[in-house]
Design a protein that fits this description.
The complex is a heterotrimer of chains A (297), B (335) and C (323). By secondary structure, chain A is mostly helical. Chain A has ten helices and no strands. Chain A has a single domain, classed as Orthogonal Bundle (MetI-like fold), CATH 1.10.3720.10. In chain A, helix 2 packs across helix 3, helix 3 packs antiparallel against helix 8 and helix 3 crosses helix 9. Chain B is of the alpha/beta class and 335 residues long. Chain B is globular, with a radius of gyration of 21 Å. In chain B, helix 6 runs parallel beside helix 7. Chain C is mainly alpha-helical. Chain C is built from 13 helices and no strands. Helices cover 75% and strands 0% of the residues of chain C. The relative contact order of chain C is 0.15. Classes of the chains: A mainly alpha (297), B alpha/beta (335), C mainly alpha (323). Chains A and B meet through helix 1 of A and loops of B.
Chain lengths: 297, 335, 323
């Protein structure tokens, strides 16, 4: 055919930029955006508390014991007469920091094991899965307490417990995703053209299971906060005079009758933090597999 | 036969517009499609992927996904499809319509045996003894007793398609919409399945809407051909005539790409340019960017259908093209 | 038939997991700091008394020998003797099991009766509108409220105000079933909240996943009613992830709901295990964890078998792969 063809209209640079912006804005839905902002605010508050002493000193005894919330102590005081605001800010920091570090370790371990298991399949996969099953079959809180008993209660125990509790599930899900990717043609093409195995694992598999890792990492973060909270609540996690949300709630339950405000503030913050993380996880997952809109029923 | 304006039409689609709306963009699948089909006709709807033919087929049963919005008038067997209540549209699908999809294995429930699915599809009637076997024999499945006990993943694509056809035809639907039911099958199985569909439809007296890009099969089995491009009907007439002597430039390009048309050794011509994706109403003729005859008005004024040689044609320059072709001036005058 | 092909492999895998966990727990218990003798005899006890105690419980033998003896007697149904109470571990467990079982039954019953229907309802009705956002938020709150927060608040509310149900003075279902229910209902409900919310979410996702499968579209095109499609073409197909979750939750509940039992002062298996950990009651810890693992492994096997029965594709061998 010899006819000149009118150019197919292409998006101008401005249109493309606008579309890029819109995509960025729609990456998180409104609910998840709010959740992300709340979490960021928590991080900001705890960092400010540590850097410039926002809210005062968490260890200084400033008032009467178990004082009700007032202008001077917006959340009241605890059993030793310390203001709850700085203790809460410190607790948020400890809980979030512990959880984030633990989940980062989980993500590295689970991604490595999961990708290798999914790609190699067969006996390697079987071995990794069985080890995961052993940890998964262990009652999780008992596992956490056992770890705390062996290494001694404290932050290290909480960290190790979170990793041991969250690794099995994430490994399994990454392995399933990796297996699906490994079966695809571009991996076969890479194998045939002689690309080295580590390169395939990183360039092809990891890149394609990154979404799964992100989503599962988010959910693992919420489990991490739950485990830290539960462990500290039972007295095996973060120890006094430190502070964490679980520890504050444990203190709160002791004085619940006399000073119910002691449990309300850390309880609400803990629930909101976990809720925000779950909302973000849901949003990420919906973006990875949007199915609702395709439904006929 | 070739009756774009036949009275007593069984299917009437009037200026149908369908948009698929996603958060990031809107895609227009039908851009004012208009079509009337009398009862009993066998209509081949052809066009490239994205021409809107599948959307048109789904629209007849209001089977569009929830992200789609549809406007215009769609009348099937006297019922205004777009206005019906959920119960009424289900009744229409049940009593008048039948659909056969390309993915036959997928259209069967993977967790149920074939026999169970067939008897579920017959509800509320209970299958009489031997009725299921008879259903499978009708679609020429050998050893039906064994097949009834199998799961969908244990049968071939051709067998699955025959079962889907058996399910679709056992109610003797007034209208059968088949969306490329043979595209995924081997050549030999393809011919058998095509023959089966048209024979069963003839027995049942069903109107057939055969959505396909297989022009040869359409020429062989259909009375009428409807060519779609950019969500509109661009040419509509007697199947054999249209394929033998296409008038619309797009139909001509499609027909020219038939391998059977070529002299040995001749190269298969491609239609230049890529199929368009509309995001809203087309300003002019949707084919203009790829059309060798496009003039200025083609990309600015929406063409309206005109009747030539008892065909409906959607082209501004339909009367000028023969002269242009004769003059050998196939190069564009878009300036 | 097909079952027989893969069941032996699964059984072997389950056995490997059990052996692994038994070694793991045995090693963990032996590496606990602060030996049993300090806890039982006190830190000022004489070396002779310590040696006698070690001999009494076979703790003077080598570690591998101890492990083998423990496993062999466990296989005969003898889980050893509690060093704290001097009673057989089986008796100790038997007296606490009814309470844990009672809590588990309440929580699982609520989960199945509320969580699954809720998930089906939201899954078949969500259209991306305000209701789906609300549904998402509510179920997210359900999985975001930790047991220890909810349990503490409930204990506080019910002990502070007269709300009809009392907290504490738990009656075991083994002594008086009718009297035990009102005392177990609160901790049961607290356990159920997370289970209901997570089951509703999983059910909703599973249902949504099946709804977009082409066979559902084909059923819609045949003019089947929504209820019919959900009953015959959605629920069965969506049931595998739901079953898996409910089985996992059951195993978790039977393994001992440690926190809820502690907060509500329910002397069940979970709180007993935590006490045993504190007292270094070796036999109790080992056997408790092993039993919880057995429950988990049996549940997984059960799910595997059911999965094979529900979806015939699962047992089909995977196609060959590269590398």
């Amino acid at each position: 055919m010899t006819g000149t063809v009118a150019p197919i209209p292409r998006a101008t640079a401005a249109q493309a930029a606008r579309r890029g912006l819109r995509r960025a804005a729609t990456t998180l839905d409104p609910l998840a955006t709010v959740a992300a902002c709340v979490l960021l605010a928590m991080f900001a508050a705890t960092i400010l508390a540590r850097l410039v002493g926002l809210g005062g000193s968490p260890t200084e005894i400033v008032g009467t014991r178990l004082a009700a919330p007032s202008l001077a102590f917006p959340l009241g005081t605890d059993s030793l007469g310390r203001s709850l605001v700085p203790r809460l800010l410190e607790g948020i920091g400890t809980t979030l920091l512990l959880s984030v570090i633990a989940v980062a370790i989980t993500a590295v371990l689970a991604s490595t094991a999961g990708i290798v298991a999914g790609y190699r399949g067969g006996r390697v996969n079987g071995t990794i899965m069985r080890v995961g099953d052993m940890l998964y079959a262990f009652p999780s809180i008992i596992l956490a307490i056992l770890v705390a008993a062996v290494v001694g209660p404290g932050q290290v125990a909480a960290l190790a417990s979170i990793v041991l509790v969250t690794v099995p599930l994430m490994t399994r899900l990454v392995a399933v995703s990796s297996r699906a990717v490994a079966d695809r043609d571009f991996v076969a093409a890479a194998v045939i053209s002689g690309v080295s195995t580590p390169r395939i694992l990183v360039r092809h598999i990891l890149r394609n299971v990154a979404g799964t890792i992100a989503v599962q990492g988010t959910y693992a973060l919420s489990i991490a906060i739950l485990v830290e909270g539960g462990l500290s609540f039972l007295g095996y996690g973060v120890q006094l005079p430190g502070s964490s949300l679980g520890l504050l709630i444990k203190e709160g339950t002791t004085y619940m009758v006399k000073a119910p405000w002691l449990i309300v503030a850390p309880g609400v913050v803990l629930v909101i933090a976990i809720l925000c993380i779950n909302v973000i996880g849901d949003s990420l997952r919906d973006r990875l597999e949007p199915r609702e809109t395709r439904s006929l029923v | 036969m070739s009756a774009p304006n036949a009275s007593a039409a069984q299917i009437v689609v009037e200026n149908a517009v369908v948009d698929y709306v996603t958060p990031s963009r809107t895609v227009r699948a039908l851009d004012g499609a208009t079509l009337r089909i009398p009862a009993g006709q066998r209509v081949g709807v052809v066009g490239e992927s994205g021409s809107g033919k599948s959307t048109l087929g789904l629209l007849l049963g209001r089977l569009l996904p929830s992200l789609a919005t549809a406007t215009g008038a769609v009348d099937v067997a006297g019922s205004p499809v777009l206005e019906l209540t959920p119960a009424a549209i289900a009744r229409l699908r049940r009593s008048e319509l039948a659909f056969i999809a390309q993915d036959a294995v997928g259209s069967l429930n993977p967790t149920l045996r074939i026999g169970r699915q067939l008897s579920l599809a017959m509800r509320p009637a209970k299958p009489a003894p031997g009725e299921l076997v008879a259903m499978l024999e009708r679609v020429r499945i050998r050893d039906p007793e064994r097949v009834l006990r199998l799961f969908p993943h244990e049968i071939s694509g051709g067998m699955a398609q025959r079962i889907a056809i058996a399910m679709a035809m056992h109610r003797a639907p007034r209208i059968l919409v088949a969306d490329e039911p043979t595209a995924a099958l081997d050549t030999q199985v393809r011919d058998e399945v095509t023959r089966l569909v048209f024979e069963l439809a003839r027995e049942a007296g069903s109107t057939v809407l055969w959505l396909s890009h297989d022009l040869i099969a359409v020429a062989k089995w259909c009375d009428r051909i409807v060519v779609m491009y950019g969500g509109r009907v661009v040419e509509d007439g007697v199947a054999a005539e249209v394929i033998a002597r296409p008038r619309h430039p797009y139909t001509a390009a499609l027909a020219a790409s038939l391998p059977a048309r070529l002299a040995p050794g001749e190269r298969l011509p491609a239609i230049t340019g890529s199929p368009l994706v509309l995001t809203g109403p087309a300003a002019g003729c949707a084919f203009a960017p790829r059309c060798p005859f496009a003039a200025e008005q083609c990309s600015t004024v929406r063409p309206e259908p005109v009747i030539r040689e008892s065909r409906g044609i959607l082209c501004h320059r339909i009367d000028e093209i023969p002269a242009l072709v004769a003059a050998g001036a196939t190069s564009g005058e878009t300036s | 038939m097909r079952l027989l092909l893969w069941l032996p492999g699964r059984l072997l895998g389950a056995l490997v997991v059990l052996v692994g966990v038994s070694i793991l727990i045995f090693a963990a218990v032996r590496s606990l700091p602060g030996g049993y003798a300090d806890v039982i005899l006190g830190s000022l006890s004489s070396p002779e008394a310590r040696a006698a105690l070690a001999e009494q419980y076979g703790l003077d033998k080598s570690i591998p020998e101890q492990y083998l003896l423990w496993v062999l007697s466990a296989l005969r149904g003898d889980f050893g003797t509690s060093m704290v109470s001097q009673l057989p571990v089986t008796d100790e467990f038997a007296s606490r099991l009814p309470l844990t079982l009672g809590l588990g039954v309440i929580a699982i019953a609520l989960t199945v009766l509320i969580g699954i229907p809720l998930g089906v309802y939201t899954g078949t009705r969500s259209t991306g509108g305000r209701s789906s956002v609300l549904g998402r938020l509510v179920s997210s709150i359900g999985i975001s409220v930790p047991e220890f927060v909810l349990a503490s608040v409930i204990v506080f509310l019910f002990s502070r105000f007269a709300l009809g149900l009392r907290v504490g003075n738990v009656v075991s279902p083994a002594t008086d079933l009718a009297a035990s229910i009102p005392t177990l209902i609160l901790p049961g409900v607290v356990l159920a909240v997370f289970c209901i919310a997570s089951t509703a979410r999983t059910t909703r996702d599973a249902v949504l996943g099946v709804l977009v499968e082409p066979h559902v579209g084909a059923a819609v095109a045949r003019g089947e009613s929504k209820g019919f499609i959900i009953r015959h073409h959605v629920l069965r197909n969506a049931s595998i992830p739901i079953l898996t979750l409910v089985a996992t939750l059951t195993a978790y509940l039977l393994g001992g709901a440690v926190i809820v039992e502690t907060v509500f002062d329910v002397p069940g298996l979970g709180s007993y295990l935590v006490q045993a950990l504190g007292r270094r009651d070796y036999a109790v810890i080992q056997s408790g964890v092993l039993l919880a693992t057995v429950v988990f492994v049996v549940m997984s096997l059960l799910v595997d078998v059911l999965t094979g029965l529900i979806d015939p594709r699962v047992s089909v061998a995977k196609k060959g792969r590269w590398a």
